[in-house]
Design goal:
By secondary structure, the protein is an alpha+beta fold. It has 3 domains: 118 residues, Ribosomal protein L10, N-terminal RNA-binding domain (Alpha-Beta Plaits, 2-Layer Sandwich), CATH 3.30.70.1730; 65 residues, Molybdopterin biosynthesis moea protein, domain 2 (Alpha-Beta Complex); 108 residues, no CATH class. Helices cover 51% and strands 16% of the residues. It contains 12 helices and 12 strands. It has a 5-stranded antiparallel beta sheet with strand order 2-3-1-11-12. Strand 11 and strand 12 form a beta hairpin. Helix 1 crosses helix 3 and helix 10 packs across helix 12. The C terminus is likely disordered.
């Protein structure tokens, strides 16, 4: 039996060496689908990222070999995640920052057959600048666009929604939308996975919404502070509001006592005015207007400032 000697071509060896050099040069590697990215858009993106990111395409088998030869942790696992026509992004940027940058570079482009409408696609009324011909019947048949001929060109009679969000755009529709100059699609690199210094970063992490995360953190911090205050836990964050709450409670208690504390005369007057208003309203059948929620919240926020000024005197009167 004759055993054939399968030799690796010099071109493949050189490609593996090239990928190996890029692996050694950069700390992070990203994977981005490019099936729907026009060559011109990809070229422009390469230019805009030059110096920060190297975008390259290679065969999966050669990539796997280069990843394995590098010996870097979890890099072979990145090759297992390659889907469809994928470009590799070699960079020293943080992958999450790179994902945000790529989002900012998104541009509008024409629809292709099989694309899904990202939102409602509307053909505006007016002059299409297209000369009359068979396209008139095609616009009506495939896009349901009402037309008329005016001043030697085709005009659209009224704004017309040709596709709703989620509709599939077929080949003929894509051609007609392009003729009308519509670019409903968002063209960008679909950045779906990355590797950074041994860690695989999934798509859901790459595209985290920082504002939403910070909002959740602030909400959690506020809820934690409220819980700590309710439990009476003393920490650096709760000591001041706990003292303010104790001062308010002490003043409230003092106002109920059958004695007059000179330092609380202003609070006595305010209490008397409130009680008089209630009695007056009951006597004459007047409905007391309740403060709006925003006013109530505002007064609550301002309350500590006013009481901070009165607290020393009030507390001193109670306990001194």
């Amino acid at each position: 039996m004759v055993v054939k000697d399968h030799k690796i071509s010099p071109a493949k060896i050189q490609e593996v060496v090239r990928i190996r050099k890029l692996i050694d040069e950069f700390n992070a590697i990203g994977l981005a689908r490019i099936e729907k990215v026009p060559a011109k858009a990809l070229h422009n993106l390469r230019d805009s990222l030059r110096g920060d990111v190297v975008i390259t395409v290679s065969k999966k088998k050669l990539l796997r070999r280069a990843f394995a030869e590098s010996g870097k942790e979890n890099l072979v696992e990145l090759a297992d995640q390659i889907q469809g026509i994928t470009a590799l992004l070699f960079t020293n940027m943080n992958p999450i920052k790179l994902a945000q940058y790529l989002e900012s570079k998104a541009v509008k482009g024409p629809a292709k057959p099989g694309d899904i409408a990202p939102g409602d696609i509307t053909v505006k009324a007016g002059d299409t600048k297209i000369a009359p011909g068979p396209i008139i019947s095609e616009l009506n048949q495939f896009l349901k666009v009402p037309t008329m001929i005016k001043n030697g060109t085709i005009h659209v009679r009224s704004d017309t929604v040709t596709h709703h969000k989620g509709d599939i755009i077929n080949e003929k529709q894509a051609q007609l939308l392009a003729r009308l100059g519509l670019e409903p699609m968002t063209i960008k690199l679909d950045f779906y996975s990355a590797w950074e210094e041994g860690e695989i970063i999934p798509e859901e992490v790459l595209h985290l919404d920082e504002e939403e995360i910070m909002g959740n953190v602030r909400l959690a911090a506020s809820q934690a502070l409220n819980l700590a205050l309710s439990l009476g836990m003393i920490t650096d964050e709760t000591i001041t509001p706990l003292i303010q709450k104790a001062a308010r409670n002490a003043i409230g208690l003092a106002l109920e006592l059958p004695i007059i504390i000179p330092d609380l005369l202003e609070q006595y007057v305010q209490k008397a005015i409130r009680q008089a208003s209630v009695v007056n309203a009951a006597a004459f059948g007047i409905e007391i207007a309740q403060p709006a929620a925003s006013e109530t919240e505002s007064s609550k926020k301002e309350e500590p400032k006013e009481e901070e000024k009165d607290e020393p005197a009030g507390l001193g009167a109670l306990f001194g």
